[in-house]
Amino acid sequence: MNNPILKREMTVQSRGLSLPLMVAGVNLLLFIAAFAGVFGILSRMQMTAQSRYGAFLAVYLLVLFLEFALLLFVTPSLTAGSISMERSMETLDLLLTTPLKPSRIIGGKLLAAAWTIFVLLASCIPAMLLPLIYGGIAVHEILLMLLVFLVEAAVLLCIGVFASSLFRNTVRSAAAAYGITAALCIGLPVASLLLSPFSETGRNWSAYFLVLDPLLAPFTEAARQTGREALVRELFLRLSLEPDNAFLRFLTPLSLACQLTMSFVLLLCTVMNLTPAGSRKKYMKLRRPLVKSRKL
Amino acid sequence: MLQMEHVKKFYGRLCALDGLDLSIEDGALYGFVGPNGAGKTTAIKIMAGILCPDEGTVTIDGMEAGADNRRLKKRIGYVPDSFGVYNNLKVSEYMEFFASCYHMEGLKARKRIEKLLSYVDLSDREDFFVDALSRGMKQKLSLARALIHDPKILILDEPTSGLDPRTRFEYKQIIGELSEQGKTILISSHILSDIAELCTDIGIIDQGRIVMSGRLQEVMKLVTEQNPIVITMSARITEAIRFLKADPQVRSLSIRGNDIRINYNGSQKKETELLRRMVEAGLPVRSFSREKGSLEAIFMQLTGHGEERILLSHEETEEDE
User: Fold this and answer.
1) What's the rounded Cα separation, in Å, for the pair B275 and B157?
2) What is the distance between the alpha carbons of residues B63 and A148, in angstroms, rounded to a whole number?
3) N or C: which end of chain B has fewer CB within 10 A?
4) Residues of B in contact with A91 (CB under 8 A)
């Protein structure tokens, strides 16, 4: 808590109702979906006297899908206003006159939003644990999925912060954040699909860019956990890429690593956007005579 | 000492600062005036380290402001033209937040905050949300915030605009006291009477350049010397005009009722001589004085882009005839 920005954000957050409302809303939706699913399976069992354990996995998948969809919807908005709001209130200038570095300002904002996401995901654990009643999914797999969600949320938060640093207007930055997210989630597979007729069969390299798609890692992991790995291969085949087995085996960590790298680049760009324009140029100017005098 | 040399700043193609030169001595209370869009806020933001100049140098106490200006930031307190306050924080929390930005924590910060809030007369509002404060109080809070780290240089952008007369008076008193404490203060303001009342030095900026700067008293004196002499006659105005036209030091002349306004080139001694000669010539001179210079007049003349100046010469030539 040594970051003043984080401290301030937490103070403000603790006063508002947005986090409790968000947690309540998301959990309500998840539990409605999960209980409806389980209730449907049980009533069918009563009618047919047959139990299909695969149906419980479908409920698990439904919960995962809903949870991730809500995460995709909520997360960019948490940070989309972080910098633009400071700009519109003209408090960013004040922060920049203090010895706080832009990286600490962004760090504080990100950590505060990450805390919200962490609380939200932690609150969703009971809904995710529902399949454990009938088996088919292990606890460590659920925790692994939570980790995937956390990483994806971190990526989305970074996208939000980056978009926020581009505009003074919060609505515009939110639109940009959702635009970038949509471009990654939908734009990449669509672009790859459109490019597939122009490449040799099984060699559409543009499909590799799908590793940057925030949907890919949760999809791959969910497919692996429920024994549907073939779906992932099928996806790449439809995009006219014949993936090798090693690529498929490490697709989840590879995708997460690529997205984290992209997030890091976005954060660097955000820091540059907050750094007074020309200061790097100035720094170079200051360094130049130093090098010359050494030569002399 | 704060110095800006040949500072240029562009926003795309727009040149906001066009080789700005500015020098502010330690302990000065510097009035920075200029019309809207003259480049005041850009210059102020560059001084405060929020923007970097495209060309030129900014030095504060001999240190060049640049990439690593954290040491300089501790020397500068900045109050923007907007309040720059977080409405969802309490007054004390707002101050604590900025104290922690300057690495001030615990008892030291607490004591400093209490001192500053009492200094700006906001001690009783410590637990109020910033949102609940009046405009004047917000402005005072912004000043207290800028003083949290006890900066040597204080930069105030339009600090008294929109304040009621009482708050404005109190605010000016605080600024005066801070100046007496030895702080270097730069005030940008449109309220020229405030500048004339408070400041020791002045700089007038127009189209990104300083068009006049110096000690306020000297500037006023210089302007007064350039002002016309107003001679009020009891009678015999035509004879007086003929007399004045014969004087080679009289550059131009205009008449308004019984007043004759002359632009006179001579020294104070020659002015006295002129008055003596007029009285000796039997002309009934009721009063003879140089028109007093005002900051408004200087401002209008220097920033009018020729319009006002044309008007003056036009008036002179017309009435000369």
Assistant:
1) 46
2) 49
3) C
4) 84-86
Interface test with B, best of A5, A10, A98 (most B CBs within 10 A): A98
Distance CA A223, CA A245 (A): 15
Residue A77, in any domain of the structure: yes
Backbone angles phi, psi at A90, to 5 degrees: 60, 30
What integer is the mean pLDDT of B104-124?
92
Q: What is the secondary structure of A207-245 as a DSSP string?
A: GGGGGG-TTHHHHHHHHHHTT-THHHHHHHHHTTB---H
User: For the whole model, what pTM was predicted?
Assistant: 0.80
Question: Which residues in A lie closer than 8 A to residue B80 (C-beta atoms)?
Answer: 90, 93-94
Cβ-defined contact of B97 to A99 (cutoff 8 Å): no
Supply the range of the domain harboring residue A9: 4-290
| Helices and strands: H and E segment counts in chain B | 12, 14
Q: Has residue A98 been placed in a domain?
A: yes
**Amino acid at site A7:** K
Position A232 in a domain: yes
Is A93 close to B145, i.e. CB distance below 8 A?
no
How many domains is chain A partitioned into structurally?
A: 1
Q: Is residue B175 within 8 Å of residue B29, measured between CB atoms?
A: yes
Mean pLDDT, rounded, of chain B? 84
Contacts of B49 in chain A (CB under 8 A): 96-97, 276
Task: Look up residue A269 and give its two tokens.
Answer: 């760009």
A99·B74 Cβ contact <8 A? yes
Which H/E stretch holds residue B20?
Answer: strand B14-24
pLDDT(B259) > 70: yes
Q: Is-contact A108 A5, C-beta < 8 A?
A: yes
Q: List Cβ neighbours of A89 (8 Å cut-off, separation of 6 or more).
A: B82, B84, B86
Q: Is residue A296 situated within a structural domain? A: no
ipTM: 0.82
The residue of chain A with its CA nearest to that of B9 is: A278
DSSP string, B144-208: HHHTTT--SEEEEESTTTT--HHHHHHHHHHHHHHHHTT-EEEEE-S-HHHHHHH-SEEEEEETT
d(CA A120, CA B170): 49
pLDDT at A197 over 70: yes
What length does chain B have? 321
- Residue B22: exposed, middle, or buried by beta-carbon count in 10 A (0-12, 13-18, 19+)? buried
